[in-house]
Amino acid sequence: MSEPKIKNVLVTGANGYIGNAVARSFVAAGFTTYGLVRSQKSVGELAAKEIIPILGSFTDLSWVSKIENKGIIFDIIVSTTEEIGNYVPHYTNLVKLLRALAITSNKHSIRPFILFTSGCKDYGMSSYLASSPGLEPHTELSPINPPPFAVDRATYAVKIFENSDLFDACVLRPTNVFGYSSSYYSAFFSAAEEALENGVFEIKEEKETILHACHVDDCGDSYVSLALAPREKVKGECFNISSYRYETLDEISEALVKEYGIKDGVKFVDGKWPEGSRPDLVRERMVLGFSQWVESDKIRTLTGWEDKRLLFSRGMKQYRIAYEEARREGRAVDFGSLKFRE
Question: What DSSP character marks residue 138?
């Protein structure tokens, strides 16, 4: 029996929350997986997870020729980085890097496939609650209508398709992701801890707000499914990444009350936000109040990908203890310090 060809993948931002999950998924799928990081302190963290670290940046591309001289050529390149408040300059530098890497691959008769990360908030907040008549999800055919912070991302992410002279590409739009340190969903744990002290979980949002998220490991596996799919079916396409169903704010809050033992349960409070303080504009409302149902049938049909991890409300115990351990080790990011992306 002949040995299968080993494919090389590079993940930019491999020390980040989504990037690290993506890199781990490629390792598990049998790829030789490289992770691009800017900091020496991240090198050991990647190596411990069998991700081969490459120390380099988007602005100094001297490392590209160095790895070519070592015979390192990439079949797949995954972009998981963004600077949401400085998106266009970051994007411009990233595309220069992707083109430089693609030129190297082309010289070795490889046309690389770029998996480019955007986010489902590019569609904007839904006008629906779970009980709304005519409730519909966002699909890949839905109009792009981003909140102000995501306008540049929504505009520029699809411009990656303009580089078809050197590579093929697809764009991924994940929902919020959770698990381990829990990224933005750490806001739920922080709120529950405060509620435990107060004796009641008071929430200033609609109880039927639609919250659609996905475990970060399932998100990582979705990238692999696209890398393994027939290229002709996925290149030039956008794909939503979400769990098999949405949850409601009421569903999640009740699970938190049960997990934390909050004495007087949940109390939904109306009219406590100033007029004009919409959930897509106000940081404090972005996680609990941004109502959005995102359908991911397209990637499921084309690749067979499916999410396997428990929904956030159904796996509350395991997600809580993982978050608390990450916080104890200094790996959890305070919600207030996060710049918004999925």
Answer: B
With 0-12 / 13-18 / 19 or more C-beta atoms within 10 angstroms meaning exposed / middle / buried, residue 316 is buried
Structure tokens that stand for 42 in this block: 């991240």
Q: How far apart are CA 121 and CA 144, in angstroms?
A: 9
Global confidence as pTM: 0.95
HEC profile for 143-196?
CCCCCHHHHHHHHHHHHHHHHCCCCEEEEEEECEEECCCCHHHHHHHHHHHHHH
Per-residue pLDDT tens over the stretch 125-142? 998 899 999 999 999 999
Cα(304)–Cα(315) distance, integer angstroms? 24
Distance CA 51, CA 29 (A): 12
Give the residue among 263, 290, 285 at the shortest CA–CA distance from 195. 263
CB-facing half-sphere around the CA of 287: CA atoms within 13 A: 22
Who contacts 48 (Cβ-Cβ below 8 Å, separation ≥6)? none
pLDDT for residue 342 is more than 50:
no
C-alpha closest to that of 70 among 98, 111, 34: 34
In 3D, which of 228, 218, 237, 231 has the Cα closest to residue 172? 237
- Within 8 A by CB and 6+ apart from 336, the residues are 283
**Residue 277's pLDDT band (boundaries 50, 70, 90)?**
confident
Let me know: does 245 contact 311? Beta carbons within 8 Å. yes
The pLDDT assigned to 1 comes to 58
Of 34, 129, 146, 74, the C-alpha closest to 157 is: 146
Residues 281-320: tens digit of each pLDDT: 887 889 999 999 999 999 999 999 999 999 999 999 999 9
Count the alpha carbons within 13 Å of 101 in the hemisphere toward its beta carbon: 31
Cα separation, 36 vs 338, in Å, equals 22
